[in-house]
Amino acid sequence: LGIGGRSGHKFISVSGDVVRPGVHLMPFGSSFAELLEACGGMVDGADPLAFAPGGASSRFLGPEGLSVPIDFDSVAEAGSMLGSGAAVFVGAGRDLQAVALSVTRFFRNESCGKCVPCRLGTDKAVRRIESEGGVSSALQDDLEGLSDTLAQTSLCGLGQVAVAPLLSLCSQFPDHFGRG
User: Is the pTM of this model over 0.90?
Assistant: First the structure.
């Protein structure tokens, strides 16, 4: 039932700057460009700027990632994860610093607070970004260290990936951050 030798289908919940957000059933092996087309494309005909193929906890990919087949291995090879299937599309013209801060705030707010690294680390990331008015080169370096600490010491997956989406936007889109 899949495409290109892959088996099965995947329900993907699509949100962001798409014409028709919602849940779409896609054959494994379809591309993210085909998923975007199934959603009616980007709002107001904007170009896609970035997307998180597996939802907020996945690393963002740039427009070149739209050709990646929808399957776990292909998305992992592209540098992200398919996760439970919750793609988030971001259109050109969006402030990627604001997107990055929003995702990081989400993880801070969702932290159960049980483990100290996640509870304090996610809050520290948000406070630093807010106090510095964005992610500079120096702050990105600090956040990479914080992300490594969270990945190694958090008790659950939330803390282990909390800063990774932000860092993926920084590395994929340096012109939008302090490394352009």
Answer: yes
> In the prediction, which pLDDT does 1 show?
76
CA distance 83 to 86: 7
Three-state SS letters, 96-110: HHHHHHHHHHHHHHH
Which residues touch 125 (CB under 8 Å, ≥6 apart)?
104, 108, 143, 146, 162, 163, 166
Q: Which ranges of the chain would DSSP assign to H, the alpha helix?
A: 32-38, 72-77, 96-110, 116-132, 137-153, 157-161, 164-172
Nearest-CA neighbor of 45 among 93, 13, 96, 12?
93
Phi then psi dihedrals of residue 22, to 5 deg: 145, -170
Spatial separation of the C-alpha atoms in residues 3 and 5, rounded to whole Å: 6
Dist CA 96 CA 49 (whole Å): 9
Contacts for 66 with CB less than 8 Å, ≥ 6 apart: 31, 32, 33, 36, 48, 51
What is the tens place of the pLDDT at every residue in 131-144? 999 999 899 999 99
Paired strand residues for 52: 88
Q: What is the pLDDT of residues 82-95, one digit of tens each?
A: 988 899 999 999 99
